[in-house]
Structure formats: structure tokens, C-alpha cells
Amino acid sequence: MDRKWKIIFYKDADGKCYVDEFLDTLSEEDVGKMEAWIEVLSNEGINSRRPQTAYLRDDIGELRIMLSRGGTRTLYFFCYRDYIVLTHTFYKRTDKVPDKEIDRALKYKQDFLNRYDKDNIGEA
Q: Are the C-beta atoms of residues 17 and 11 closer than 8 Å to each other?
């Protein structure tokens, strides 16, 4: 059996979780859809491919989910062999993921890696 990746929702140093905040704005049906696709990402990990996921740049990937109010992107990165860290989610309004969103994910990635290493990641 293939291994299952552990999903972590990024929280900033103040405990703010941007994925949770996005989920709080959704209907129950859309939350269920998001959770189902996050589970697929957990199961497939680095083997996940288009159309569900895509590599953007600088080790940042996107999970693509169509919800009732439009297409969303949840940005993420892999770390410490077993983990996928979801940084934030937004509605995609343009053909290309805006650089500012990728830069935001990179900022969160750096913050996460500065605060957690493979020995204390379970505390994230």
C-alpha cells in the first residue's frame, strides 16, 4: 500500500489559519468538496497530477477545486518527507495564478520551516 501524506494547515505565529478562515466562508457542501479533494491530495501526494494539482514554481503547488462560487486554488508545499502544508486558499479570477499569491505561499513556507523542523513538526 502506498503511504499517505500527512496534511497540515499552515498557521502563522499568532495561530491564524488561512485555509480554515476560507473554509468558514463556505457552504457545508463546498466544505465537503474541499475536504474530499484534500483527502485525494493526501493519498496521492507527489503523484497527484493535473487537472487536480499543478506545480507553480519554487516548490509551490496548487490544488484546484471548483466550488459553487467558482474555481479555487489552495497552495501547498511538501516538507520533511511525509508532510504537505496547505498555506492558503483563494478564488482564482485570472488565467494564471497571480505571482503575489505564490509569493505569499513562499513567505508562509519560509516562516513554517523557520519554526518547525522534522523533530517538532507534530506540534504544528
A: yes
